[in-house]
Specification:
Number of helices: 12
Number of domains: 2
CATH superfamily of the largest domain: Alanine racemase
CATH class of the largest domain: Alpha Beta
Number of strands: 21
Structural class: alpha/beta
Largest sheet: 9 strands, mixed
Distance between the termini: 57 Å
Bound molecules: pyridoxal-5'-phosphate
Radius of gyration: 23 Å
CATH topology of the largest domain: TIM Barrel
Amino acid sequence: MDHFRYQDNRLHCEQVPLDQIAASVGTPFYCYSRATLERHFDIFRNAFAAVDHLICYSVKANSSLAILDLLARRGSGFDIVSGGELERVKRIDCPGNRVVYSGVGKSAAEIQAALDHDILMFNVESHGELLRINHLAGRMGRRAPIALRINPDVDPATHPYISTGLRRNKFGIPHTRALELYRLAATLEHVTPIGLDCHIGSQLTTLEPFVDALKRVKHLITELRHVGISLKYLDLGGGLGIPYDAQQIPPHPERYAQALLNELDGLDITLILEPGRVIVGNAGILVASVEYIKDGEEKRFIITDAGMNDLLRPALYDAHHTILPVMRRFDREEILADVVGPICETGDFLAKDRILPEFNPGELLAVRSAGAYGFSMSSNYNTRPRAAEVMVSEDRFTVVRPRETIQQLMEHEILFS
Ligand SMILES: *Cc1c(COP(=O)(O)O)cnc(C)c1O
């Protein structure tokens, strides 16, 4: 359920017509619905209400400060993957004890900054990282709380670029080596093993891979207790998918939670969850204008002012996003078309081979489910300023990030002399 609906054939975000926002901020822009965002967070959190848990929203899904702030006010913690994301959560005054830090390539400077902010734990992804954290914490006269990110070698059956829990992926520590590395961690002077972490991929549409992964790590936690390493936290990562189209409907967060809680039964541990997409994905859309209609030999191209630099998912993952006209009419023909951007790349499309209503130049269209990995993956390719971001609450909208200017893009560049 989201709050992007037609009222009188005008697409609205909550009570604000999208064409009204377009008239005020121009296109393309991302539009977020506060009520949808908060509803998704609440549903997810309530699903885990029966157990001790901490929800650490995955900042990389959408790192807009306005979104982080709304989630923090609802009690969310954060999963970060860079020093830049750490600065973002500091900017919204999130205390360190609600921050976990994931990622295979944490630099020395990033580790120090996270130690300085007293984060809850580092999700450690290699032997080398474990030793580096120990060394840096020692130099700062500190002890770093850590979890090892375990790669359980289960197939999440998602797009290869967003599967992370297979043996061949770069992420985590092979589950066969986990015991040995925990034993090493327990002997190090400046780290304390307090948790175990496991994130197997993104946009998962079935529960089995989550349950299989949990079985593997549960076994490990028991084994660790036998050798005197008692963990306080089990971080199960993120990855629950959202419905991008009607074909594949992922399980509801309540079913997801139930499956995990059944499997956990009896294990005395605090859960950490790192949802990203499921919180923010359907809380945002991208609104663009049609620039041209071009008839190719085989199909029609709807050329918009939003491209792969604004929304990379179709180009990168061949992802499906539903396209809707902002002004709905019932007298239109339906045609086979590609929706493409202005960028000089064949991969620059928002939709391919889609049956769509006939659009006219100058019309507005909306790309649904663009709240996650939309703006946060956008770039300046082709020297295109990044889109504006707008937050809607009820009958009010606020520009939470103005459109970049071309001047800003070149501001720090220097000619060679
Ligand atoms: C990307 C990521 C997430 C969030 O994944 P979603 O599919 O958006 O829920 C959580 N944890 C880690 C470690 C990640 O890399």
